[in-house]
Amino acid sequence: MSTQQIPVVVLAGFLGSGKTTLLNHLLRSARGTRIGVMVNDFGDIGIDAMTVAGQVGSTVSLGNGCLCCAVDASELDTYLEVLTRPEVGLDVIVIEASGLAEPQELVRMVLASENERIVYGGLVQVVDAAEFGATRERHPETDRHLGIADLVVINKADRVGEEALAVVRDTVGGLAGRAAVISAAYGRVDPELLFDRVVPEGEIEGQMSIEDILYADEDAHAHPHAAYETLSHASAVPLHPRRLMAFLDSRPEGLYRIKGFVDFGAADPANRYVVHAVGRFLRFYPEPWPAGEDRLTQLVLIGSAVDAAALRKELASCAQNGPQDAPDEQSMWGVLRYVPRSEEEPSEVLPD
Ligand SMILES: Nc1nc2c(ncn2[C@@H]2O[C@H](COP(=O)(O)OP(=O)(O)OP(=O)(O)O)[C@@H](O)[C@H]2O)c(=O)[nH]1
Questions:
Q1: Order of strands across the sheet with 180-183?
Q2: Helical spans, DSSP H, in 113-161
Q3: Is 0.95 exceeded by the ipTM?
Q4: How far apart are CA 43 and CA 325, in angstroms?
Q5: CA distance linking residue 98 with residue 81, whole number of Å
Q6: Coil, strand, or helix at residue 70?
Q7: Quick one: pLDDT at residue 288?
């Protein structure tokens, strides 16, 4: 989607919360998806997993010290330039912030990047369920970090009981604003939450891999609650740009990712609009309809604790109701605000 753009996910969380473990899980379950990684230090990352994922040659160590202190935006761009070269063939890039890094700065750096091959892939904040209270006491900035996250992973769910986990979830939910919140053990989140998985050639989507089988038992304990929901919407009826924007502007907490294509019908008959939303971040990329292809709106919505039935209903009410409901030219203005124009970035992505 805007198919060549590579999502850049920022992975943050306090020392020992389980960032590296989560990253290793992603690498292990990546299979056909090529993940590029930027970390301060490769010490803890399973090089085996990286070899399996074919990543070793394409990762960049930033040396010692805090990434956001050690590099400025132009240096980050240098690394991103290397990782996004077409011959490297990455599908997603994950920047693991050191435990002490200011995630907001990293996110700003990614958003300020002039690299046209990347798109912001969200800020994932990892929290240690067992240490949450103590971490907040020692590091009051935790609350602020959670407030800007797009997805919060409450890790080490295996170390606390159901009740304690529910308390952490409530507190995190209160602090995390619009972020989706999921719990996990050993960082075992579904990679689909973070990026689109590439299904390797010869493999059927949904087929279990060796890893799935090996970790199936543990995974049964890794998801004490249904972690997230995915819902798809496909329709040959064009959407009304004003109503879709009203839906997107008020999208519920927990709706973490939206991806797909939108047909705005008469409002722009030449183009379909690739939509990419992660957390608060939203972009539309118009592109000409491929010749001979059915004009369909196709959306996938992924979130935690969302009301799928309500979302379906709201999306259905965005459909255009015949010629009397045809959008006028001005009704596209709301959409066009989210079409990227070179340097300019919409300001509402991050709170000040
Ligand atoms: N019980 C339990 N231990 C975990 C879990 N996730 C990670 N660990 C352990 O917690 C320790 C820290 O995990 P890391 O993944 O290194 O944490 P990190 O956030 O990358 O740590 P820094 O790089 O130091 O910031 C390791 O010993 C992990 O094995 C979990 O879900 N449950």
A1: 60-61, 35-39, 92-96, 6-13, 118-128, 151-155, 180-183
A2: 132-138, 141-147
A3: yes
A4: 59
A5: 21
A6: helix
A7: 95
Q: Which residues line ligand 1 (CB under 6 A)?
A: 13, 15-21, 44, 99, 155-156, 158-159, 185-187
Q: Categorize the per-residue pLDDT at 262 as very low, low, confident or very high, splitting at 50, 70 and 90.
A: very high
Report pLDDT digits (tens) over 108-122: 888 888 888 999 999
Q: What is the mean pLDDT of residues 61-71?
A: 50
Q: How many CB atoms lie within 10 A of CB 122?
A: 27
Q: How far is it, in rounded angstroms, from Cα 56 to Cα 47?
A: 8
Beta-strand relationship, 151-155 and 180-183: parallel
**Phi (first) and psi of residue 94, to 5 degrees:** -115, 125
343 CA → ligand 1 middle, Å = 38
Q: Is the per-residue pLDDT at 217 higher than 70?
A: no
| Domains of the chain from N-terminus onward | 6-222 (3.40.50.300), 229-349 (3.30.1220.10)
Q: Ligand 1, residues 11, 14, 21, 218: which to mutate, most atoms within 8 A of Cβ?
A: 21
Which pLDDT tens digit goes with each residue over 237-248?
999 999 999 999
Determine the residue type at 128.
D
Q: Whose CA is nearest to atom 13 of ligand 1?
A: 18
Q: Which token pair is 286?
A: 């118009």
Would you tell me the crossing angle of helices 103-112 and 73-83 to the nearest 10 degrees?
Answer: 70
Give me the chain's average pLDDT, please.
80
Is the pLDDT assigned to residue 1 strictly greater than 50?
Answer: no
Place of tokens 């203005």: 333
SS3 121: strand
